[in-house]
Design goal:
The chain is α+β, with helices and mostly antiparallel strands. The chain has 2 domains: 250 residues, no CATH class; 304 residues, Beta-galactosidase, Chain A, domain 5 (Distorted Sandwich). Helix content is 32%, strand content 26%. Strands 2, 9, 10, 11, 12, 15, 16, 18, 19 and 22 form a 10-stranded antiparallel beta sheet that branches. A 5-stranded antiparallel beta sheet has the order 1-3-4-5-6, with no helix packed on it. The protein has a 5-stranded antiparallel beta sheet with strand order 8-13-21-20-17, with no helix packed on it. α4 runs parallel beside α13. The two termini are 25 Å apart. About 9% of the residues have low confidence. Interacts with the Sec translocase complex via SecD. Specifically interacts with transmembrane segments of nascent integral membrane proteins during membrane integration. One of its GO terms (biological process) is protein insertion into membrane.
Length: 585
């Protein structure tokens, strides 16, 4: 490998690394009821898989009245309900609730799967946790974790309610807290209504930390992952404010948003939870952290200002589902969704590189086109790779042709270097004359490679997050999910120290082998002995670097790169033969 080729490799590495950094950094890529015995509705066999069904399991055993919520001066009031688990089914959801805290403890997506089972969107560290808890006061206050009464309003609506009282100098002032969940059979959007009503026509004195209450989502969105590495598994935090999407970065485990937002979202690679508040001026907070049973939490809080009336109704809508544009855009047209929402622009949560998003869109359309011809996403990736190679042929051909010519000139270049070893100026002059005479551009092998980097980065972004690749099999028994790394043998739970690997993967090995072979083909036999150790090391260090960097990469991405390397090897070999014939002739 000559110095100019080495320079091309180094510059390419810098561009790739900076590209990944930009992608990951800017676009990419811490209430109400008391104790009772919990019993899952499913355990009693009282479940119903039909759309719009509601099932429950009562535990009629009464529990002692919950202790005073001392920090807020609020106590559960009136009768003490028993605790129960309640489930509700729609066409897209199977939701399970606990009356303790009126929490959503499970939300399974019927149309999306993980390990053969409906995908779970509520990732909990322990059985006591759940989403949509209410705390009296700000986000740092404990959820009112006491049992609520529950009733089904209709086949798609569940309501939880409970009396509380605020301790005042003149005695307790009662109020009723109601939390209502309303679904539409075919929507990934659902409604959460929070109602606080005072029976004596005076607004409840709920004002802790400057807030009446906080509605929270947490502790984590699904599906479960082993590690949040920031590239292949991550959580991101978006809002939509004044018609623009905004990405928030965590600072010391939290970030607060003081501006009024149209919606706020916690995003994973393929799924999202999006909270759409009403017109009330809520304060918004995102937090990250860790707790037993969870490697990290991702919580979202809406904090309401103090009440100014005896009856308060706040309506939130939450989207909990896939990051698929055709699904998200339904909530821009009131005729296409069951809640009549308009112009929510939930599609703004899509992870699309802002610098090369247009190129990703083109590649995605081509990929879908090839899939329509041969309905196998692995084959579609190979066909797309071939097309990209053909389109880039004029650029890559000049690059490899220039590299091949430089190899052929190695003996003459060596002769000039030896002859003018003690006269650098004369050596450079003779080299320039040689390049001119032989019509060789010493940078010809470098610049075309750099021009390919936008395509490289766009393809990385596409294969790393395109939803339709999720769960798509290429080669049964081996590459069963193009969105995930393949594995030929797993020795979990054991993990290789430091690396944390618990699987043997073949695709990274194939990738390294093809990359090394491609690099070695650019080396001239006549110059091999003159290569210094650093050049020889670079030939192997670059593939080794990528081996570790891409070991847990999605298999679809590695299929693309391996096929690219194989085509490149063939192209290099053909060009070398042509150059040799010209040299001999």
């Amino acid at each position: 490998m000559d110095k100019r080729t080495l320079l091309a490799v180094i510059l390419s590495t810098i561009v790739i690394s900076v590209g990944f950094m930009i992608q990951n950094t800017f676009f990419a890529p811490p209430l109400p009821e008391s104790p009772a015995v919990t019993e899952q509705a499913e355990a009693s066999g009282n479940t119903n898989a039909s759309d719009g069904s509601v099932s429950s399991n009562d535990n009629s055993q009464q529990q002692p009245t919950a202790p005073v919520l001392q920090a807020q001066g609020i106590i559960p009031f009136g009768d003490e309900p028993g605790e129960k688990m309640v489930s509700l089914d729609t066409k897209v959801f199977k939701a399970t609730f606990s009356s303790r805290g009126a929490l959503l403890t499970s939300m399974k997506l019927k149309e999306h799967f993980e390990n053969g089972e409906p995908l779970e969107m509520i990732w909990r560290g322990n059985d006591a946790e759940g989403a949509f808890g209410i705390s009296f006061g700000g986000p740092e206050r404990e959820i009112a974790h006491v049992p609520f009464f529950v009733r089904n309003i209709d086949e798609n609506t569940l309501e939880f309610y409970r009396e509380f009282a605020v301790q005042t100098s003149s005695g307790p002032v009662p109020f009723t807290l109601t939390k209502r969940f309303r679904f539409n059979p075919s929507d990934y959007l659902f409604e959460v209504l929070v109602k606080i009503e005072n029976s004596v026509n005076a607004y409840p004195a709920l004002d802790e930390d400057g807030y009446a209450y906080t509605l929270s989502f947490g502790p984590q969105i699904g599906p479960q992952v082993e590690k949040m590495d920031g590239r292949y598994a991550y959580r991101r935090y978006f809002t939509y404010e004044n018609g623009k999407q905004k990405n928030y970065r965590m600072k010391n485990g939290s970030v607060s948003v003081d501006n009024r937002v149209s919606w706020a979202a916690v995003l994973g690679k393929y799924f999202a939870v999006i909270g759409v508040p009403d017109a009330t001026d809520y304060d918004l907070l995102f937090t990250e952290g860790s707790e037993p049973g969870l490697p990290t939490t991702s919580r979202l809080f809406f904090s309401r200002p103090p009440l100014k009336s005896s009856v308060s109704e706040d309506v939130f809508r939450f989207y909990m589902g896939p990051k698929i544009s055709r699904v998200l855009t339904q909530y821009n047209d009131p005729d296409k969704n069951g809640f009549g929402t308009r112009d929510l622009h939930l599609e703004e949560v899509m992870d699309q590189g802002r610098l090369l998003g247009w190129l990703e869109v083109i590649m995605k359309k081509l990929l879908v086109f090839f899939y329509s011809i041969i309905p196998n996403w692995g084959v579609a990736i190979i066909l797309l790779t071939i097309l990209v190679k053909v389109v880039l042929f004029p650029i890559t051909h000049k690059s490899y042709e220039s590299t091949s010519k430089m190899q052929m000139l190695q003996p003459k270049m060596k002769e000039i270097q030896d002859k003018y070893r003690d006269n650098p100026n004369k050596m450079n002059q003779e080299m320039a004359e040689l390049y001119k005479r032989e019509k060789v551009n010493p940078m010809g092998g470098c610049l075309p490679m750099l021009l390919q980097m936008p395509m490289f980065i766009a393809m990385y972004g596409l294969f790393n997050k395109y939803f339709d690749l999720r769960g798509s099999s290429f080669i049964p028994g081996w590459i069963t999910d193009l969105s995930s790394p393949e594995s030929v043998y797993s020795f979990a739970p054991f993990k290789i120290p430091i690396l944390g690997w618990s699987d043997i993967r073949l695709l990274p090995m194939f990738f390294v082998a093809t990359m090394i072979l491609s690099s070695k083909m650019t080396q001239s036999p006549s110059s091999a002995g003159s290569q210094n150790s650093s050049m020889k090391m670079m030939t192997y260090m670059m593939p080794i670097f990528f081996f570790f960097f891409l070991y847990n990469a999605p298999s679809g991405l590695l299929v693309y790169w391996i096929v690219t390397n194989v085509l490149t090897i063939g192209q290099q070999k053909a060009i070398s033969k042509i150059q040799k014939r010209k040299e001999e002739g």
